[in-house]
Write a structure and sequence with these properties.
The protein is mainly alpha-helical. The protein has a domain of 78 residues. It contains 6 helices and no strands. Helix 5 packs antiparallel against helix 6. It is flat. The N and C termini lie far apart (55 Å).
Length: 145
């Protein structure tokens, strides 16, 4: 039996119950992931952040940015961009509706951005930490509406 025919045998659904085989479900999930990737996602945003970080480090090593002492805090932007991208992807998949799947990553990205600002600019975490928690709580409440 050829490989193509072997796969067609596995794709048969149970006509009485309507259940799909595991292979069909896996193929559907794979097609959905591929469509999400090709749907003009925000993968480019991570590239922009990496380029910006590289430029900042290059300017610092060239002597143009001598005041940049907390440069390591910029690495917190990487998970912020990743969670923002996941939240926007969920927002688009749900037809522009703010569901829990979309709000959760957005809250996390706001928290990461806030932490980046606190560490990068040397702000007082005991002052801005509660503000970050308040903002996260407001985003969660407003996102459930």
């Amino acid at each position: 039996m050829s490989e193509q025919n072997q796969y067609k045998v596995n794709e048969v659904t149970d006509s009485e119950t309507g259940y799909k085989t595991r292979r069909e479900e896996r193929l559907e999930r794979r097609a959905a992931r591929r469509a999400d990737r090709l749907d003009g996602g925000l993968g480019w945003l991570g590239g922009v952040v990496l380029i910006a970080l590289g430029l900042l480090f290059w300017l610092q090593s060239a002597g143009y940015l001598t005041q940049l002492t907390n440069w390591w805090a910029l690495f917190i932007l990487l998970p912020a961009v990743a969670t923002f991208s996941a939240g926007m992807g969920a927002y688009r998949r749900n037809g522009g509706q703010w569901t829990g799947e979309a709000v959760g990553p957005m809250v996390a990205s706001v928290m990461f951005l806030g932490l980046t600002a606190v560490f990068f600019f040397g702000l007082n975490l005991s002052l801005f930490g509660p503000i970050l928690l308040i903002v996260a709580g407001l985003l969660l409440i407003l996102g459930r509406r």
